[in-house]
Specification:
The protein contains three helices and eleven strands. By secondary structure, it is an alpha+beta fold. It has one domain: Alpha-Beta Complex (tt1808, chain A). Strand 10 and strand 11 form a beta hairpin. The termini are far apart.
């Protein structure tokens, strides 16, 4: 059976990694499900949300760190590379891992904050969710700026998460084990577009 164009990878992982090293600072490149994805540089409110979440995580779980813009190897469908807006892991977890792309082993939570671009729906709501589930990352937190909500995915099972709960900005969000952090999201209302 001949593979369809949708099943044919854009390039090899090695070719992608070389391209990503040479990409301009105005974009972030990702390789998910065999396809090249271009992610715009985050805006200031995107950065403010990540900083808010970073502080919340470190205040409640000082033995952990939320690593911004962490490259993670995600094996979904074809070998892939996702640049997580945040990866929650033990302090110094990524020290000693070679290169820009670390294994997902030991990552407790991946975080994405949507950007206002045409690819956010596919990239953040589907492709990365599948990639993070397949990599076995226990929790995937999506801060969806289009709907002013947080979507918590947990209990990875193959290429999906068994549980998915949505919360509006202002709700109290209890992130499940192994994260075990409770977010008072009232502050996110200040960052609403």
């Amino acid at each position: 059976m001949t593979p369809s164009p949708a099943d044919t990878p854009d390039m090899s992982v090695e070719e992608f990694e070389e391209l990503a090293r040479r990409a301009p600072e105005t974009v972030t490149l990702e390789y998910i499900n065999g396809k090249l994805k271009v992610k715009p540089v985050p805006d200031q409110l995107h950065g403010a949300i990540i900083m808010w979440l970073l502080r919340e995580c470190m205040q409640q779980r000082p033995e952990l760190a939320l690593y911004p813009e962490q490259g993670i190897k995600v094996p979904a469908y074809r070998a892939g590379r996702a640049k997580a807006d945040g990866a929650l892991a033990p302090l110094d977890h990524f020290v000693g891992q070679p290169g820009e792309w670390a294994t997902a082993d030991g990552v407790l939570m991946a975080v994405e904050v949507t950007s206002f671009d045409s690819d956010a729906d596919t990239r953040d709501r589907y492709d990365k969710r599948v990639g993070y589930a397949t990599a076995g990352i226990p929790v995937y937190l999506l801060v969806d700026r289009d709907t002013d909500s947080l979507v918590v995915h947990s209990e990875p099972d193959g290429d999906t998460y068994r549980l998915c709960r949505s919360y509006k900005y202002g709700d109290t969000v209890a992130l499940p084990s192994p994260v075990d952090i409770t977010l008072d999201t009232e502050k996110l209302k200040d960052y609403s577009g």
